[in-house]
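Tokens for Free methionine-(R)-sulfoxide reductase. Go.
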Amino acid sequence: MSEKQPFYHYLHQQVRALLDGEADLIAKLANLSALLKQELPSINWVGFYLLKDDELVLGPFQGKPACFRIPVGRGVCGSAIVQGKTLRINDVHQFDGHIACDSASNAEIVIPIRHSGKIIGLLDIDSPNFNRFDLQDQLGLEETMLILESML
């Protein structure tokens, strides 16, 4: 058992209970961003971007004001959409084309969200700590998004 497995097991229980019975996507994302901000240590921004045409549009989040729109293919978020997979960046300053919405952010993880097989948006989490997100975090947060997807 990994050291973070109990944490993510408990987080997943909370996510299921929080989202159960709510049909509205924005309401779900708003409360989920609040829960993740409350529970995840060493993060300074957590939120969602929703895919509309060829842009990611800011959705519910917790943290400092953020970029309203990110073109698909730009920055970590836009690259995750093009690649269709999670991107875990240990040092955002080394990521070619990184879009700095908050200069305090040093690490980032971005996870696409799918509905009916198509990407509809993504979860974006920033940390002031370099190397903040490891494989255990990636797997735990990907499972969190699978729970969300199962309730869409």
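The mean pLDDT is 95.
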